[in-house]
Write a structure and sequence with these properties.
The radius of gyration is 26 Å and the shape is rod-shaped. With about 180 residues, it is α+β, with helices and mostly antiparallel strands. Strand 3 and strand 4 form a beta hairpin. About 35% of the residues lie in helices and about 30% in strands. The C terminus is likely disordered. The termini are far apart.
């Protein structure tokens, strides 16, 4: 009779351990899946913003744009939250060895971990306003690109961000309505 009791104790303990291992592995797989889906969402959104800014830049930089057009304003169509989390959008530029400017768009979730970046190649005459970034709660974010006329004597330049910029410089400025609630 002692063999049956010992067998039941051993099997019960084995079943409890197996159940704990099953729950832990299922939870781990669900977490991995969630992280990968969130990363894909962030990467897609960063790529979309980078490509949209690049397309608007190419439009502004053409010679076919009317000369009386000071800037082009394009909404970035960003959601208020990504995967239910607030985020920060940051733009930065670097210059390549050939003189071209690369624009890096970085999206970082602020309430949890997650970050994605996308880089696009711009022309030599691309510039940013001072480190533009915007945070969650922004309802409308627009990319405003100015094609600067340059300093032509005492005449004003095309826009406030063009002050001191050389002629034909295309300057990106983010505009947004920030909600703190």
């Amino acid at each position: 009779m002692a063999d049956v009791v010992i067998g039941n104790v051993i099997l019960t303990a084995t079943l409890v351990v197996a159940l704990l291992l099953f729950v832990a592995s299922a939870s781990g797989l669900a977490t991995i899946y969630t992280i990968r889906v969130r990363q894909t969402l962030l990467q897609n959104q960063a790529t979309q913003v980078a490509q949209l800014v690049q397309q608007v830049y190419l439009l502004v930089n053409t010679t076919q744009i009317p000369s009386n057009t000071n800037y082009v304003l394009k909404s970035l169509d960003l959601p208020n939250q990504l995967d239910g989390y607030p985020y920060t959008l940051t733009l930065s530029t670097t210059q390549t060895k050939t003189g071209l400017v690369t624009l890096t768009v970085t999206l970082t979730l602020t309430a949890t971990y997650g970050q994605a970046s996308s880089t696009v190649l711009m022309g030599r005459n691309f510039a940013l306003t001072k480190n533009p970034s915007t945070t969650q709660g922004t309802t409308i974010i627009s990319a405003q690109l100015y094609k600067c006329a340059g300093n032509t004597g005492n005449q004003p330049t095309s826009g406030p961000v063009c002050t001191g910029q050389p002629a034909n410089e295309v300057v990106l400025q983010l505009q947004g309505v920030i909600n703190t609630g």
